[in-house]
Design brief:
Helices cover 39% and strands 16% of the residues. It has 17 helices and 10 strands. The chain has a 5-stranded mixed beta sheet with strand order 2-1-3-10-4, with helices on both faces. A 5-stranded mixed beta sheet has the order 7-6-8-5-9. The longest helix has 20 residues. 55% of the residues are buried.
Length: 370
């Protein structure tokens, strides 16, 4: 059972798949109910949502890369429907937010047993520097990083990239350069510094806006009344030939060696939760509003829309054939590593040493549906 009294809201991590930047500031710009600055402060003071009661199973502490909102829908379903309890686990999720170390930092220090990191590249680089962590799975099969544009001047294909004015946050230039280089294009974009509100795009200050495809499109819909296909367009980096996984689930290699049964149980219960979210996205929204994110001042319409946007990103051909949360080492090696290197990634580890697929192989020994 999840011990909600132990959920702590803290610092957001870096952007998924890209260089470090503050998701706290980013989400402050999302209209119609993304986390308000005051609500975030209140949540930190209150220690998250209401207590769900302490469990009697094996205790596992899990660090999340953002506050306990709908982003982690599958974990909430697994907790509320007793999937962790059924496995004999007592899972404590620690939410991210202001002033909290990144999940992999907590993991490396021994503060938690598992981590859910938004930024795959960052975790890989940490492993490449000698930290003995291992990737077990990925919540997002498609990284939510992407580009927004207006329908009257769309950017949806690599052929649309040349000569663009791209609104983005400082520090993302290498990421954008890698995007161009991966498509055999000269990085001839004009970098236009921007905040975390896509309003500058509507005002014509740029041709495209670097975004989370699960957040800024909602701002365009609620604040500016635009609709996809008739007012705005959005494309992921993966859709532009630069794929990555995100919300990476990892632990120490020693944990797999010494407590493999516990790790398998956690991944099985979590996969069941994410499987359920595909079938009924609205169920997790109700849980977040009434329980796990009750103190965050969340807006029901925004949370529903966010889950509608993120749910397709949790599924892929790989998950359909082999089960939720999968990572494909071959895809990582042949499609993800090359462009990450073009974007400045250094000391990426050998994939075979960084990824352990055997845990999910054991989870799905009888097939992709649990």
């Amino acid at each position: 059972m999840i011990d909600q009294s132990k959920i702590i809201t803290g610092s957001a991590g870096p952007a998924q798949g890209g260089p470090a930047r503050s998701r706290r500031d980013l989400l402050k710009a999302v209209a119609a109910g993304a986390l308000l600055a005051g609500a975030g402060t209140a949540a930190a003071a209150c220690g998250g949502g209401p207590a769900a009661g302490a469990g009697s199973g094996t205790r596992l502490k899990v660090a999340l890369g953002w506050v306990t909102n709908i982003e982690f829908a599958g974990f909430w379903l697994a907790a509320d429907r007793g999937y962790y309890r059924d496995e004999g686990l007592d899972v404590v999720f620690r939410g991210g937010g202001p002033n909290t170390p990144l999940p992999h930092v907590q993991l490396a220090s021994g503060a938690v047993d598992l981590a859910v990191d938004p930024n795959m590249r960052q975790v890989l680089e940490v492993i490449g520097k000698g930290n003995d962590l291992v990737l077990l799975g990925a919540q997002f099969q498609t990284d939510p990083n992407g580009l927004l544009s207006l329908s009257k001047n769309p950017l949806t294909r690599p052929d649309d990239l040349p000569g663009r004015r791209i609104l983005s946050q400082q520090g993302t230039q290498p990421l954008l350069q890698g995007l161009y280089k991966a498509n055999n294009l000269k990085p001839d974009f004009q970098f236009v510094p921007a905040g975390f509100d896509p309003g500058a795009l509507v005002q014509g200050k740029g041709d495209a806006y670097n975004c989370f495809v699960t957040n800024q499109p909602i701002t365009l819909e609620t604040k500016f009344g635009l609709q996809r296909g008739s007012g705005y367009e959005v494309v992921t980096y993966g859709g532009l030939g630069c794929p990555a996984y995100a919300n990476i689930i990892s632990c120490k290699r020693a944990t797999v060696a010494r407590r493999r049964d516990v790790v398998v149980k956690f991944m099985r219960a979590s996969a069941r939760g994410w499987q359920d979210n595909l079938a009924d996205p609205g169920a997790a929204v109700r849980l977040v509003l009434r329980k796990y994110g009750v103190d965050l001042g969340l807006d029901e319409k925004q949370q529903n829309r966010q889950n509608a946007l993120q749910t397709p990103l949790t599924e892929s051909g790989l998950t359909k054939s082999k089960g939720m949360l999968r990572i494909d080492p071959e895809t990582l090696t042949s499609r993800m590593y090359p462009w990450l290197r073009l974007a400045g990634a250094a000391r990426l580890p050998v994939v075979g040493k960084a990824v352990d697929t055997s845990v999910l192989d054991e989870v799905y020994a009888k097939g992709p549906k649990l």
